[in-house]
Amino acid sequence: MSNDYDVVILGAGAAGLSAGLYSTRAMLSTLMIESIGPGGQLLITDDIENYPGFREGVKGQTLADEMYNQAERFGAKMEYAEIEGVENLYDDRKLVRTSEGDFTARALIIATGGSHNKLGVPGEDEFGGRGVSYCAVCDGNFFRGQDVVVVGGGDSAMDESFYLTGICNSVTIIHRRDDLRATKVLQDRAFSNPKYKWLWSHVVEEFVGNDVLEAARVKNVKTDEVYDYPTAAAFVYVGFHPNTEAFQEKLEMDELGHIHGDLHMRTNIPKVYVCGDARAESTRQLGAAVGDGITAALAAFHDLSA
Ligand SMILES: Cc1cc2nc3c(=O)[nH]c(=O)nc-3n(C[C@H](O)[C@H](O)[C@H](O)COP(=O)(O)OP(=O)(O)OC[C@H]3O[C@@H](n4cnc5c(N)ncnc54)[C@H](O)[C@@H]3O)c2cc1C
Fold this sequence. Notes:
The protein is an alpha/beta fold. It contains 6 helices and 19 strands. The radius of gyration is 21 Å and the shape is elongated. The structure holds flavin-adenine dinucleotide (FAD). Belongs to the class-II pyridine nucleotide-disulfide oxidoreductase family. This is Thioredoxin reductase. Pfam families: Pyr_redox_2.
């Protein structure tokens, strides 16, 4: 496989795969570099109900497969590697360092998306894979018929907890406030489902157990009461951070590490673009990531043809 391309796309989630489709259809030689597998967050999403074109919704894995096959059909290449850094960004040939070697390109499209935050409490790492999880779709089945908790009150927490209500005996939402941040339609769906239980104004202080997780040690922030809430599993959805460590000090970013891009997804460096959840001001929605990826690829085509 060649190591030099017109366009290298960093990350193959929805944004990267969309960029790959448009870039190859514009006859630009295109490599996508991805560490886990094509689809990114789609791989940890069960049902997607708000992506246009699917009246009954679509499974994340199904959409990821279709997007990848479509990009590949037009000639996009895939390298499975961990992106370690970028260099020579102002040169004609920009360099990407990866665990599988170096790649060069005339244009780079950064589509590395983001990942869920950890709570940062004792026991979280210790019980990772033994009860503490960040992906209901991946791990929920291990706790079929059991009582589990979900930590968080946003869209991801509500989406994923709803998935868990289909397989678990009960799902307790542990939320530090006394109302949800999630979209109204998701709230309504949760409040009308008898499988939910609610621990309002509670935070998790620790995960406890022996070989496996046995309880979340919670604190009522209104009364300061601390007690162990028994659970077979804890699914954590408490925010999100962009995967942009490899570009620190290289590109202009906001205070959380999202890379600034203009309306055409151009960053502060010519022929370096950003799209999807890694971009500052992103709405962090699938349709938006797809649109960003398309826009970035079209801008790259325009700039490389000038
Ligand atoms: C549980 C959940 C449910 C969701 N539900 C919905 C929904 O119903 N509707 C909706 O519109 N949106 C939903 N979203 C959000 C939507 O999935 C995202 O906005 C969208 O997928 C972001 O795409 P992306 O390509 O920007 O990033 P990502 O999907 O995060 O893809 C980035 C890719 O880059 C790769 N990568 C990152 N760093 C490196 C590195 N250093 N080296 C190599 N590869 C790297 C990652 O492995 C990943 O594959 C949901 C998200 C989650 C987590």
